[in-house]
Specification:
- By secondary structure, the protein is α+β, with helices and mostly antiparallel strands.
- Among the domains are: about 140 residues, Calcium-transporting ATPase, cytoplasmic transduction domain A, CATH 2.70.150; about 160 residues, 3-Layer(aba) Sandwich (Rossmann fold); about 170 residues, Calcium-transporting ATPase, cytoplasmic domain N (3-Layer(aba) Sandwich), CATH 3.40.1110.
- The protein is built from 31 helices and 26 strands.
- Strands 10, 11, 12, 13, 14, 15, 16, 17, 18, 19 and 20 form an eleven-stranded mixed β-sheet that branches.
- Helix 5 packs parallel to helix 10.
- The longest helix is centred in the C-terminal third of the chain and has 41 residues.
- The N and C termini lie far apart (about 75 Å).
Length: about 850
């Protein structure tokens, strides 16, 4: 519609300047439907619930519960099912709360619109708008559908939610003759989801609902498939290996007994005990709780996590693609530089600086008098950001002008200036601001050092040079002049003021942190190349820059070859962003994408981590894994740090649980090979895995952040959870624990009943794991280091676990097939179980000595 005359548009839509009749509007509403963006991927409560079961380990646990039930192990079945239910409830609550939070953040949709129906203005729900409706737009109006402008008076629209450009766009009613014009350049079209910041106009609705540009982008999101997170992939692999191990061990033990002429049913039950020992029952619950606690910490740092696995994925991020407007920048124009009296003066921290030294503000009073009075902005409310920047600068510099306005000549794109006539001390004075070259052409005089002089050629050249220097720094520059009459040809040139959407103060340090952490930051913006370069320079972002036009000329293969060298993308549209994220992912990167606009939604969904900002559009939020409540790029950097910490802690408790479970397997396996009775029974193993193991494992998930965590490169997404060195170490620890338990069991069995020996073995194995958790808390450091005692939760968890073990031995012995122990028994148990800690301390000391020699 942008390339058609207004009469042609009105004829095609069968409308007129009097608008539609109520009857016709009703018929069209039936035909086109409500003017709403459909929630294509709205997540139901049932779907959130089902998502909690998408884990291989959960499948293994469910299979184990069925087997236990079939063989009459009712208690075991109940305990395993309780674990599955607990995991499901925790995950469901977190995701449901996140979805409710997203609903509360919805702010984009305009509830009402002013239309002309049957020749009269009416206020109607925006959802009732139909093609052919005539809408009235004024400052502060939210555009609720796509529309062709038919009348425009100084109309300016903030299209940052759609195009990413922070500067308002001048809108006109004249036809655009060109073909294939980009959305950002369709200056006679209003787009749904944008906002009027200045002027007034009328427009005819051409598209509503899902047919608007906003709706088209919402539709395109469903074409992007969600990818599993690194943690989900690794846990699936981990679960598969555990299952394979269980099958091999079960089969091995069964056939070993069979060839020894043991009863087949008895051997199967023994094999089942081994299977129970092998399954880390507490792992899903511990991971879910750890991730949930991580989301609460992130929420305190203004990051709302919508999906639990995203917490860990953040720790894998190797590239952050960040939208400039509102995330790197403040999304508000600020006056930063002025030219007057042949001086380029910085505006910084409410001071005027010339050659980095503060100068007297009064010298520039006349310039800010014009900037304040030839202006319709207010500090509060919806205003043109450029005009607002002038008002804010005047106020911050303590200038206060309040002269009566007699009349106004609004800005329009043809004349390129605005003028007001004010009554100043009984005299009428005209104030004019606009495009510098236009203002300069209208000036005959120059205001310098408090005097009016003839504006000669040298003066003009100085102004033009200053203008070019400011523009080359990506500043939006306005010229200012005044006159003591209304003749626009005899103006007195006063000066220039340059404005820019400034970067957030903390972004520079965040970029620096990313560089140390080996994370590449890529800035993607709809702004022009020069503006993007200027902002990048201010935030310390270095690298090649490419525009959307240049990107269109690149093949997918060519982009893949150069994508890692590019740090800045300027003047891009939504399809470009998706292309960039895809190219980075093909290079093996884990990509985070921050953004606020509808234009970001497809890339947010495609990215491994989509991070929408809190003030952004609903479409962006619903396509993301997390929401930056404070709109700040630095928040995602903090979230990455938290994600790295959580992954390190997840590895710690997986190592701990796996080494502990392996020790349980070896205890049963060695006992069967040696012809001994089972040292521990299935329900005792379940107790250790769920309760006494679970609490310390959960406490490991609360380990504080290592100060070096953001000085390491991102880990390889393909890295296995358990590598060769960690596998060797945990096997060694498992052997120590299993052999110690067998030794104690055999010693007590030779002098006492089987139930007595099993009670001692059960308690020894449990206490072994309390000492073992200290190994994984300390990692490569000695347990006597100062950092070791920082995790008070772990020390508390160990104490609670030990007390629970003592409780069941003395107060619930029948349920667990136990007998009460003496103090001497406990001393023996403590002495033997401490050997796993002593062994690891000796190993660490040995490794340290070897490393010192080399």
């Amino acid at each position: 519609m942008y390339n058609k005359e207004i009469k042609e548009v009105m004829k095609e839509l069968n409308s007129s300047m009097n608008g539609l009749t109520d009857a016709e509007a009703g018929e069209r509403l039936k035909k086109y439907g409500l003017n709403q963006i459909k929630e294509i991927h709205k997540i139901s409560i049932f779907k959130i619930l089902l998502n909690q079961f998408k884990s291989f380990i959960i499948y293994v646990l469910m299979a184990a519960s069925i087997i236990a039930f079939l063989f009459g192990k009712t208690t075991d079945t109940i305990i395993i099912l309780a674990i599955i239910i607990l995991n499901t409830i925790l995950g469901f609550i977190q995701e449901y709360k996140a979805e409710k939070s997203i609903q509360a953040l919805k702010k984009l949709a305009a509830p009402n619109a002013v239309v002309i129906r049957e020749g009269k203005e009416k206020l109607i729900p925006a959802s009732d708008l139909v093609p052919g409706d005539i809408i009235i737009i004024e400052s502060g109006s939210k555009i609720s559908a796509d529309a062709r402008i038919i009348e425009s008076s100084s109309l300016r629209i903030d299209e940052s939610t759609l195009t990413g450009e922070s500067t308002p766009v001048d809108k006109v009613s004249s036809v655009i003759k060109s073909e294939n014009v980009q959305i950002a350049d369709q200056n006679n079209i209003l787009f749904s989801g944008t906002t009027c910041v200045y002027g007034r106009g009328k427009a005819v609705i051409i598209d509503t609902g899902m047919k608007t540009e906003l709706g088209k982008i919402a539709s395109s999101i469903q074409e992007v498939e969600e990818q599993p997170t690194p943690l989900q992939i690794k846990l699936k692999q981990f679960g598969f290996h555990i299952t394979l191990g269980i099958i091999i061990i079960t089969a091995l033990i069964f056939f070993l007994g069979y060839f020894r002429n043991q009863n087949a049913v008895d051997m199967f039950l023994a094999s089942l005990s081994l299977a129970v020992a092998a399954i880390p029952e507490g792992l899903p619950a511990v991971i879910t709780i750890t991730l949930a606690l991580g989301t609460q910490r992130m929420l305190k740092r203004n990051a709302l996590i919508r999906k639990l696995p995203a917490v860990e994925t953040l720790g894998s991020v190797s590239v952050i693609c960040v939208d400039k407007t509102g995330t790197i920048t403040k999304n508000e124009m600020a006056s930063t530089l002025l030219y007057m009296n042949n001086k380029l003066v910085d505006i910084k921290d409410n001071k005027l600086l010339y050659n980095k030294k503060e100068i007297d503000k009064r010298e520039f009073s006349k310039l800010f008098e014009i900037a304040s009075l030839c202006n319709n902005a207010t500090i509060d409310g919806v205003s043109d950001p450029t005009e607002k920047a002038l008002i804010v600068a005047s106020k911050n510099l303590n200038f206060n002008f309040n002269y009566k306005r007699i009349k106004e000549s609004p800005f329009d794109s043809d004349k390129k200036y605005m003028a007001t006539l004010n009554l100043v001390d009984g005299n009428q004075i005209s104030y004019v601001k606009g495009a510098p070259e236009k203002i300069l052409d209208m000036c005959k005089y120059s205001y310098r050092n408090g005097r009016e002089t003839i504006l000669n050629r040298k003066d003009r050249e100085s102004v033009i040079n200053a203008y070019h220097e400011m523009a080359n720094n990506a500043l939006r520059v306005l010229g200012f002049a005044y006159s003591k009459d209304e003749n626009p040809k005899n103006l007195v040139f006063t000066g220039l003021i340059g404005m820019i959407d400034p970067p957030r103060e903390e972004v520079y340090e965040s970029i620096k942190t990313c560089r140390k952490a080996g994370i590449k930051v890529v800035m993607i913006t709809g702004d022009y190349k020069l503006t993007a370069q200027a902002i990048a320079s201010q935030i310390g972002l270095h690298g090649k820059i490419i525009t959307g036009e240049e990107l269109d000329k690149l093949s997918t293969q060519r982009l893949s070859e150069i994508v890692e060298d590019i740090s800045i993308y300027a003047r891009v549209n939504p399809s470009h962003k998706l292309k960039i994220v895809s190219a980075l992912q093909k290079k093996g990167h884990i990509v985070a994408m921050t953004g606020d606009g509808v234009n970001d939604a497809p890339a947010l969904k495609k990215a491994d981590i989509g991070a929408a900002v809190g003030s952004g559009t609903d479409v962006a939020k619903e396509s993301s894994e997390m929401v930056l409540i404070d709109d700040n790029f630095s928040t995602i950097v903090s979230a990455v740090e938290e994600g790295r910490r959580i992954y390190e802690n997840i590895k710690k408790f997986i190592y701990y649980l796996f080494s502990s479970n392996l020790a349980e397997i070896l205890v049963l396996f060695i006992a069967l090979l040696a012809g001994l009775p089972l040292p521990v029974i299935a329900i005792q193993i379940l107790w250790i895995n769920l309760v006494t193991d679970g609490l310390p494992a959960l406490a490991l998930g609360l380990d504080p952040t290592n100060h070096e965590i953001m000085e390491r490169k991102p880990r390889d997404a393909k890295e296995k959870i358990i590598n060769k060195s960690s596998l060797i170490n945990l096997i060694a620890l498992s052997l120590v624990m299993s052999l110690g338990t067998i030794f104690v069991f055999n010693y007590y069995l030779s002098n006492n009943s089987l139930i007595y020996a099993q009670t001692v073995a059960f308690s020894t194995l449990m206490l072994y794991q309390m000492f073992n958790v200290l190994n994984y808390r300390a990692q490569d450091r000695t347990i006597f280091s100062s950092e070791f005692f920082k995790n008070k939760y772990l020390l508390g968890a160990i104490l609670i676990s030990v007390l629970l073990q003592i409780f069941i031995v003395y107060f619930m012995p029948d349920l667990f097939n136990l007998i009460k122990l003496t103090l001497f028994d406990w001393l023996v148990i403590a002495l033997v179980s401490s050997t796993v800690l002593i062994f690891q301390e000796i190993r660490k000391l040995f490794i340290k000595k070897v490393l010192e020699q080399y």
